[in-house]
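Q: Got a minute? One more chain.
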Amino acid sequence: MTLEIKRQSNIELLRIIAMFIIVLHHYCVNSGFVELINPKILTGNVLFVQFMSIGGKVGVNIFFLISGYFMINSSMKWRKVFQLVFQILSINILVCIFLSAIGYSYGFKDYLKIIPLIFDVPESFISNYIVVYLLSPFINKALKSFNKKEYSYLLLVLLIYFCMLHTFLNQKTWHYMGWAFTMYCVGAYIRKYDLSKLNWHFGWISIGFVILTCVEILLLDFIVFKFDKSQSIWCFAIGDANKINIFLMAVSIFLYFLRLNIRCIKSINYVGGVLHSAYCYGMPITIS
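A: Always. Here it is, folded:
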């Protein structure tokens, strides 16, 4: 007699939400709306585009947190790597054929970018995801050997360099692979030391960071209006994945959903898996 282990749908629901805000992010940023924003003329549409434009970075952080949380106790499988690369390449080719057929033009370098891990690094989510996955056996071995003090020290150094210096001193410390590794380590830390059991109200904390970020956008809009600063100041000041507010928002949302008790709902699990795959497959494609 075998027992079927049914997984809860809390993380799958989080995947769906993360994918939704990532789609909104790309809709706002890649549509050209951001370039048209004039914070001196604030309307409901302008505020909506500004608020939604930061969602994609939160979603990316959440996906890396999920990876670190589950992969710390898993093993890397080559079959998954080859399967993922093949699927990404196949779908990228089909999308390029479709877009070319409806009038989009590509240069030779643009076509090369559809090949994962070769021509689309370093600014591709999926390439960095695959590299972290390939390195996960070594990363996991190192992380598991650390005691809590050593592990906390590692995270402190990583977050000071990638997050704090970038947020408060405007140092250009952003690096996709470095940040992917950092978020992976944070997710694994949450799993190793079971931080979801902390008696904190992560839902309210998440809402607090959302409100704080919205207030920051409004304040930056006021600065643009008052002092005639660059119109895009709000986007670069608070919108990157390694800004402290975006990082803490993603972590608190992730911890809230970890504690969320949702029974196994097959439809949510299916949609969550499909959307996660669709997100990975679509990331290398850019339209210029």
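A: The chain is about 70% helix and 0% strand.
Q: Perfect, thanks.
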